[in-house]
């Protein structure tokens, strides 16, 4: 694996479990870095296939942005594992669902949406598609004020083709978050990530509700083709729902880019209880 910073297994101390994913486990840990500084970190390992984890490490090595979880390096000898920055605020999904949810003001919901758009704009500028953007894959750090996109297990670089045609992966596609052209023709692009961003923003303004909760998974793609969309969350301003709605245009090229989404979101100002567009 080129360019990845190699970390010695003896410099890592594994602590408690932070979470489990489809393939592996993420542990809280401490890393004694080469300057002899001890850094709190998260360690992802125990993958079913090393190839998947290698691909994720390669992707993360190429990314540096405040709204993307940072990779410190990887343990390559013994068992492969990925050492990354610790986001001690847990996932955005958990935060939205937590009993403290009333403390989350509309301004914070908008702030999380802006930060995710910012991270995704950067990702698209590097020609990566994430393919699994969802509130569960956004972590919080810095006193829960900073949102960071994580889980690049499905991410791919599309430098050679603007649209990436998905070949194979052991992980199932997250249907409720996935754009129709990606479900039908396995066609992934910035615009399929934009679709998922719309669903993520819907989760944020629904305080962590599951999209299409009352609907059987296999029925959702047909509903979407018929023009049915997720309903406006009760406390979501019309203008912000309109952004989500634009992300769910059946024609992928008619959806806004992340650059435009970021611009629109940064143009909103929360004033006297309503959103005003600048
Ligand atoms: P998936 O099934 O979504 O593909 P995965 O196996 O790729 O999951 P992750 O989603 O990356 O694993 O991580 C699983 C859980 O571990 C996350 O939901 C989160 O709670 C926790 N976690 C992952 N990375 C970190 C981190 N850097 N800091 C803190 N917690 C983390």
UniProtKB/TrEMBL annotation:
Native organism: Acrobeloides nanus
Compartments, record wording: Endomembrane system; Membrane
Residues annotated to bind ATP: 44
Limits of the Protein kinase domain: 12-272
Whole-protein residues included: 1 to 278 of 742
Full protein name: receptor protein-tyrosine kinase
Domain of life: Eukaryota
């Amino acid at each position: 694996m080129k360019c990845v910073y190699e970390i010695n297994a003896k410099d890592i101390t594994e602590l408690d479990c932070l979470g489990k994913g489809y393939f592996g486990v993420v542990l809280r840990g401490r890393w004694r870095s080469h300057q002899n500084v001890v850094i709190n970190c998260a360690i992802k390992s125990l993958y079913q296939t090393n190839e998947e984890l290698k691909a994720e490490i390669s992707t993360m090595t190429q990314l540096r942005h405040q709204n993307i979880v940072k990779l410190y390096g990887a343990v390559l000898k013994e068992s492969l594992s990925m050492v990354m920055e610790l986001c001690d605020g847990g996932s955005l999904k958990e935060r939205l669902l937590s009993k403290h949810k009333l403390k989350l003001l509309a301004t914070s919901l908008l702030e999380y949406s802006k930060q995710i758009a910012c991270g995704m704009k950067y990702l698209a500028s590097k020609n990566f598609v994430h393919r699994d953007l969802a509130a569960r894959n956004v972590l919080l750090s810095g006193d829960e004020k900073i949102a960071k996109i994580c889980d690049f297990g499905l991410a791919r670089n599309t430098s050679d083709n603007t649209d990436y045609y998905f070949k194979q992966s052991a992980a199932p596609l997250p249907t409720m978050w996935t754009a129709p052209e990606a479900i039908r023709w396995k066609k992934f692009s910035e615009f399929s990530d934009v679709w998922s961003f719309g669903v993520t923003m819907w989760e944020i303004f629904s305080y962590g509700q599951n999209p299409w909760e009352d609907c059987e998974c296999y029925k959702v793609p047909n509903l979407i083709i018929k023009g049915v969309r997720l309903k406006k969350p009760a406390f979501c301003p019309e203008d912000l729902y309109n952004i989500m709605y634009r992300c769910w245009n059946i024609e992928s090229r008619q959806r806004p880019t992340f650059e435009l989404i970021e611009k629109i979101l940064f143009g909103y100002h929360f004033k006297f209880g309503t959103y005003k567009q600048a």
